[in-house]
């Protein structure tokens, strides 16, 4: 090959500026998310949806309104309109659930996101929409033979301006002082008599405005379509976490860091984009557990996951009832067809997956956003053993989950050093790294075309046999995890959840206990994945993907995170409904999202959590007693 | 644990819904699966296409006198969901065959399911070569021209270009990877003098177009191969136009001439790209005229390529069912192998050797006309002319 001179110096300057322009788009959206999270602690999954609606409304307005004023006016009006939608959402939906268990708001915003994805297609049609270019910023500027789009320069200037305005807002206004105070310690702010309701609403409005503005400003360079939200939401979360939650400057620096690393990374490794942000996040979190500009969270005053009803093992009557329902479930093959049985198996596998995450979340207080990694590793473990080593099914089922176990042992070690959302995001980063390996290592994993032909042995092949197998394992797993909750190990784990300091004071090695719990949960998920591989006969990177991790979270939250086995119900309801809706309607996301939002409003403690509370009330109501004494203790510390 | 009660209830509900759906016994049912919620831009016209076909078939007396019913399911863009749907269609609805799918991994998942459960499967859209070759099986047939065929059509035109320095931009997943691999291989065979100076692999759906365009420009290629489509293509074209990437460079691009991907570009459509596609406005054959007229009369809209694929999928399925005069999968396979039939793009044949249809594609150049993107100088390339020799195909495909 003949020698080619390297690109001129001007190229590197322009590439740097291009990276800055990408950073600007990211920062606008990330700043809004960071503000919202900092103050309200809501993991706002719908932030991407607001970004997308901003782009759609701006598209409509800029197509209708003519001229320069029409374009910029359209952008601003769109962002304001979406902010109003945000205010309505906050007041009607989120206000009802601020006191629900941690992360429950994630469920509500997830439901909204599902609804919006179908709604935009209903309103604006299925085609990709390409908006017009910004008046005055249509061309490019020549820089020593390299072209820089003038719109890029506009964005590069805009983002520090927005940063400056936000800075002034936070440093120079009373509202900003309150927001900063709430970010540091919102209980204290509330104790000082600040009206939290309006503070939260206004913060939400500002955050949504920034998201929608970010979306609207994409019109001159992007296509507007119904999957824009998913494309940005994860990346934005990562930027916020790298920067440090609640830190606007952190979000800015992180956006620049990520975008520049991408801009120059692709010159050396063209395939790096797919995983880069997650690599950066994992590296940053391992070195700086609170992100670049974040500060350690103030010790929680309210104990997360503290149950209104103290947990207790089932009474013998309840045990009999559970056994009876299990027996009834086992008779399904007597009257149901093959399809119902296969769906039954899939639901049983979901139960395994959900209870494994539930164990980590409710008993350990560790919410993983990347639990699908261990499910998928179990599935890949089976696929490798069955296809490459040619081992029989029973051996594969026993050994396959070990891959999930090993993954959980390695990643769990790093993850349990962190807590709260940082823990969640590190697990997400690890899951994405595993996903990208499965996706990219085509020669071993088959890439996104997956591994085919992993079908069960003849003894398990019939739908009824496979159903019994899945049901049996699901029951065993649920019982085993319940037994563990009430074992000394379970008590120790709950102690680390309720108070790390106190548990350490009584001699519990918190990190080791949590790590063990992580490995148990990962291995259990791996068992689910192993069964899933045989149920579907194939394994794809999807089995490790974000959407499966989100499904698991939704199932746990739906069942009730403060319960012992709520995830069982959550998994059954969510999975059965999901399969049924996808089969019956073209608008499954709209209906499912609406259902989730409704559940969130009606059952703010999850389905099982709410049922337990009602049962508790009835029990309390029957014997005459002091209502004061009957009032549950809400806070331990 | 109240859990199991719900469980049984849910199972009952599913069972009941399955029963409510079953049509009359003498109807012939086809199960159809596609990514309706994930890819509406393609699947909406596709659905219109197959609905038109069903209407035409039943108006002409059905299949050997029996009414044709298509039961359609969404796969949410996930292979696992597609298998659930396939299972429902086969076990619960009792369909005679499965059709559809868009994404390659979903096509492969359903094809593997079909092979395991011994069900006839006619893949509509997935482009991966694996589905008929390396992972081919006797139950699976495919309608659309494969990755290899489209690459071969483009190479025919691209190899005549004087350009020697080539760069590639493709989405980082199987489709993009194999499109680039086949194009490079065929191109280098015809033109050993070619150098591949850069390759860019943006994640599918997440291209950061500015840096990608800069990086390609820095390698200073004389020609570019593009495999991105949809929203990624829009971003790439916009950045490329603004930064002058395409000025003085030849571009060869997969699928860009399909109305689904070309129309959104509007006045930003780059001119002179060599593309595969579907110029419905300039096809003047009696078969296509008939299709176009019927489609426009029914929907008051113009067809996209998806419309053709949906229409011809069900037409092909009906032809296979009519010839077999049975719903036995083995008889369907025997009927389909070597079966020829008319299509809006001319006669096609399902090859016995690899179950690939000989449906072709149009190759032409992009142009801008009245603020809209069109394909000009286009000509139809018959699929049969762009497949490797039978000896090679036999080596590629596992023995049944």
Provide the fold topology.
The complex is a heterodimer of chains A (637) and B (400).
Chain A (H helix, E strand, L loop, with lengths): L8 H32 L6 H18 L2 H26 L11 H21 L4 E2 L9 E4 L2 E4 H23 L1 H11 L1 H6 L4 H21 L6 E2 L3 H16 L4 H21 L7 H12 L28 H15 L1 H4 L2 H26 L8 H16 L5 H7 L1 H15 L4 H21 L1 H4 L5 E2 L5 H4 L1 H23 L2 H11 L1 H6 L4 H27 L1 E2 L6 H14 L6 H19 L3 H15 L4 H15 L5 H4 L7
Antiparallel strand pairs in A: 1-4, 2-3, 5-6
Chain B lengths: L2 H19 L6 E7 L5 H20 L8 E7 L4 H14 L4 E4 L3 H14 L3 E3 L16 E3 L4 H12 L6 E5 L4 H17 L4 E6 L8 H10 L4 E4 L4 H13 L6 E8 L1 H4 L11 E4 L8 H14 L5 H20 L4 H8 L3 E2 L6 E2 L11 E9 L2 E10 L8 H7 L4
Parallel strand pairs in B: 1-2, 1-3, 3-4, 4-5, 6-7, 6-8, 8-9, 9-10
Antiparallel strand pairs in B: 10-13, 11-12, 13-14
Helix pairs in contact in B: 2-11, 3-4, 5-6, 7-8, 11-12
How would you sum up this structure, described in words?
The complex is a heterodimer of chains A (637) and B (400). Chain A has 637 residues and is mainly α. Chain A is built from 29 helices and six strands. In chain A, the strands form three sheets. A two-stranded antiparallel sheet of chain A has the order 1-4. In chain A, β2 (140-143) and β3 form a beta hairpin. Chain A is globular and about 75 Å long. Mean pLDDT of chain A is 87; it is low at 624-637. Chain B is an alpha/beta fold and 400 residues long. Helix content of chain B is 43%, strand content 18%. Chain B has helices at residues 3-21, 40-59, 79-92, 104-117, 147-158, 174-190, 209-218, 231-243, 259-262, 286-299, 305-324, 329-336, 390-396, and strands at 28-34, 68-74, 97-100, 121-123, 140-142, 165-169, 195-200, 223-226, 250-257, 274-277, 340-341, 348-349, 361-369, 372-381. In chain B, strands 7-6-8-9-10-13-14 form a seven-stranded mixed sheet, with helices on both faces. In chain B, strands 2-1-3-4-5 form a five-stranded parallel sheet, with helices on both faces. In chain B, strands 11-12 form a two-stranded antiparallel ribbon. In chain B, α4 (104-117) links the parallel β3 (97-100) and β4 (121-123). Chain B is globular and about 65 Å long. Chains A and B meet through α1, α4, β1, β3 and α9 of A and α1, α2, α3, α4 and β7 of B.
